[in-house]
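Section 3.1: Structural characterization of target chains.
Under the original work plan, the team committed to producing a structural model for every single-chain target entering the pipeline before any wet-lab resources were allocated. The record below documents one such target. The sequence was received from the expression subgroup and is listed exactly as submitted; it comprises 100 residues.
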Amino acid sequence: MAYAERKNRFDPRHPPTVPVRDPAARRDLWRALNSFVQENGAWVTSVPGAKIMRIEISEHSSLADRLRELGYLPIDCGMSTRITASGFAAVSVIEIDLPR
């Protein structure tokens, strides 16, 4: 395994296909996905390390489609309102199931 592969072992663009049993590995995967979601202008609202990651995305975001392309199966949980620097914003709420 190359250094870059070890350094970025849990890359959200390549979800693991086998169960993640190690708590430290699960935490690393959760952190990588959290960073990916934030880079795409969305917010993670679930507890860190939770099996189900709840994400709030803006109405016109393509993040749900990007997650599908990466192998995750986002579940639509409806709409909500989020307070932002520019006022109230309508957001879509989705959940993705992380590997156990």
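Residues 23-39 form the longest helix (17 residues).
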